[in-house]
Amino acid sequence: MGNERKIQVVAGGTSGMGLATAKALGKFGPVVIGGRNVKRMEDALEVLKSAGIEAYGKSCDISDMESMKSFAEYAASLGTIGNAVNAAAVDAGGMDLILNINIKGTVNFVEAFLPYMNGSKLVNYSSITGYFYAPGREELEIWNDPTAPDLCQKIKAVLETKEVHPGMAHLGMDYIAYSASKRFTMYFTQANAKRFGQKNSQIFSVAPGAFDTPMLREQSDGAVDQIAKGTALGRLGDPDEMSDFIVHLLEDGHNYLTSCDLILDGGKSAMAMVKQLD
Ligand SMILES: NC(=O)c1ccc[n+]([C@@H]2O[C@H](COP(=O)([O-])OP(=O)(O)OC[C@H]3O[C@@H](n4cnc5c(N)ncnc54)[C@H](OP(=O)(O)O)[C@@H]3O)[C@@H](O)[C@H]2O)c1
Predict the structure, then answer these.
(1) Distance in Å, CA 214 to ligand 1 centroid
(2) CA distances from 187 to 91, 113, 126, 197 (A)
(3) Considering its fold, how many domains does the chain have in total?
(4) Would you say residue 186 lies in a domain?
(5) I need a surface site. Which of 11, 136, 175, 247 has the fewest CB within 10 A?
(6) Considering the entire predicted model, what is its pTM?
């Protein structure tokens, strides 16, 4: 399971932690990034190339399976795929958009890259928000059929029956859809453990807390300091801290690591879920 100049893929590699991850993965081999916005892609490629990385970009929409298949095909045409990271997600824009990108998109990414896995590693970005969402038995039955054509509609129907936590009321149903999608990401990652194991490959997810990226800035409503105070370390994470973490996990070795979710959150989930001692 060595990296030896294999192709490194990052969907959502044009911004924030995805771009930081693409940059860090450049140490292993050529990098392929994907995203929808062409200008953002060009800017990201510029960043990577000026860091001396052999970088390629291909426009793609993770919520569209055909688009993901051609993204994977393009990456595989450049060489053997070593690591594939899915950092593409949205946390606003309505339930349909969130579920399509974060849930269907995660399924599409894994399905599209699975045929190319051979001593490879696939990483999905989840979120600590996923730990704040508890799926019911009915939902798990839906989640257990992830390639169903009406997966997102079925999930949406269940989510519409849920109430938003009063503390998150300002975020509305988008918050429910986002946290459910991130819990799904962890679950779906685990559901793939055997399939990846059979290909001598590993799959796991990483759960960021609050990192200083365009996504966080856009949703923070100016309350960045407040969010930072919600961590044990009193600050936001730097995207490079997340990419260092991922690259460390993807270094040669760590070959028994699969299916789990790994948290990097500066103590944010501990602060939110556990009464802190004085
Ligand atoms: N920032 C945080 O504090 C935080 C906390 C917990 C979890 N996360 C998770 O960490 C990951 C990275 O987040 P970030 O904060 O770095 O976000 P970001 O800066 O907003 O970047 C998101 C990336 O996803 C791409 N993307 C979105 N929709 C896509 C689609 N349909 N197809 C292909 N690419 C798409 C975007 O490019 P285009 O828009 O051009 O397509 C962009 O490259 C996400 O999974 C996010 O949910 C972030």
Answers:
(1) 8
(2) 19, 18, 10, 16
(3) 1
(4) yes
(5) 136
(6) 0.97
